[in-house]
Amino acid sequence: MSEACDRAALAAPLFDYTLRLADTALILGHRLSEWIGHAPVLEEELALGNIALDLIGEARALYSYAGAVEGKGRDEDALAYRRDAGGFRNLLLAEQPNGDFAATIVRQFLFSAFAQPFWRRLAASRDATLAAIAAKSEKEAAYHLRHAGEWLIRLGDGTEESHRRAQAALDELWPYSGELFERDAVEDRLIAAGIAVDPETLRAEWQRTVSAVLAEATLVAPERAWMQSGGRHGRHSEHLGHLLATMQFLQRAYPGATW
Amino acid sequence: MNAAGLRERALEAAAHVFDPEIPVLTIGDLGVLREVRVVGDTVEIDITPTYSGCPAMRVIELDLDAALRAAGIEKFRISTVLSPAWTTDWLSPEGRRKLAAFGIAPPAGQTSRRALFASESVRCPRCGSAQTERLSEFGSTACKALYRCRACAEPFDYFKCH
Asked: Are B85 and A139 within 8 A, CB to CB?
């Protein structure tokens, strides 16, 4: 009885929490998929496509679960394709444009350095479905982090031009890293219930990973304290609307279309 | 037919479903086929994806569906389960042998978490040399990495430890 009550009371924050994770995975996955046909070398074409697939696969599992928790009959397609920008809860970092290859790598690195320990911790969640998705995602995030980390070192400690571009990308994207560690009432409720991860507990590990790779890459993190915020509450940069216009076109024009 | 017989028939049907990307491996060899049980008069089959976004899963499901129908099984349910997460430790010894014969280096040993930039020692499936180098962590499918043999100069796929 009390467990059922707890479950009902937690449904709203659990939906929000799962949706945020799903949106970030989908939007970042879609961004990476934009490289298909444009990557600098064939190996990177495959790598970015593979990482995009992992992220979109994670998003599908998370959307399906969010829809079930919400209980209003929305499936993964309804959540992915039939919400407007204001309804999306992804991190602003995920929707930032691909830019040059350095910007894509910096975006992926800052995110993956957080995602890998995040999934590892969420795998111990008291919510069995989130724990299962997390255990799967963590193994994939380890590859994503290694891939982005290796590239960042190669670019930063590479030629004069690759160093310049990598540093410029880091300066541009760094202010989006603060949102990784934000926590609000949604997390508060779920952390207390042993379901969500307190992002603050991941900061030291993220910091260590980032510092080690930047040092080897001869790159310097900006000291700016001000951070961008808003994606988790539906306040987005202008980039998201353009992304959705492309991604959602088919389902908007032909609702319910299937292969 | 009794439950045991029905399960036998379903297993036999599933044994002939191959991975669409690595056509020498059955879904049993891969560890994608997790469980076959009979509940009442219904066959319930659990499959698990190798990687979250593996596009082969849908094809595997359709092939499994067709194989079960061809075996005369009408009442069945195929579910995708995520836990426990798939690992290459579930690749059967037969599967490893078939991979090598097909020209794909099987996963080197058991899964263990590598340090951030540690690399694996992979043998060339063609000449057997250990003098190989990784070209890319990501290959033609999510489960493979791209390697090159420094001895015989052939590029090859490595089914990576996961």
From this structure: yes
Boundaries of domain holding B65: 3-86
Same domain, yes or no: B19 and B69:
yes
What is the rounded average pLDDT of the residues B62-82? 95
CATH number of the CATH domain containing B11: 3.30.300.130
Measured between CA atoms, the residue of chain A closest to residue B84 is A132
Q: Are B57 and B49 in contact (CB under 8 A)?
A: yes
Of A36, A53, A206, which to mutate for an interface test with B (greatest number of B Cβ within 10 Å)?
A53
Residue A254 main-chain phi, psi, to 5 deg: -130, 75
- The rounded percent of chain B whose pLDDT value lies above 90 is 75
Q: Which of B34, B65, B86 is at the close of a domain? A: B86
Chain B residues within an 8 Å CB radius of A58: 52-53
pLDDT digits (tens, 9 = 90+) for A123-143: 999 999 999 999 999 999 999
Phi and psi, residue B146, nearest 5°: -105, 125
**Residue where one domain finishes, among candidates B55, B86, B117:** B86
Between chains, do B138 and A128 touch, taking CB under 8 Å as contact? no
The answer to whether residue A28 scores a pLDDT higher than 50 is: yes
The region, left, alpha or beta by phi > 0 then psi within -120 to 50, assigned to residue A256 is left
**pTM for the full model?**
0.92
Query: Cβ contact (<8 Å) for B85 and A136?
Result: yes
- Helix (H) / strand (E) containing B79: strand B76-80
Chain B nearest-CA distance from A57, in A, is 4
How far CA A121 is from CA of A96, A124, A126, A131, A201, in Å, comes to: 26, 6, 11, 9, 10
CATH of domain A2-253: 1.20.1260.10
Whether B65 and B103 share a structural domain: no
DSSP alpha helix (H) spans, chain B:
3-14, 27-30, 56-70, 93-102
The ipTM estimated for the assembled molecules is: 0.85
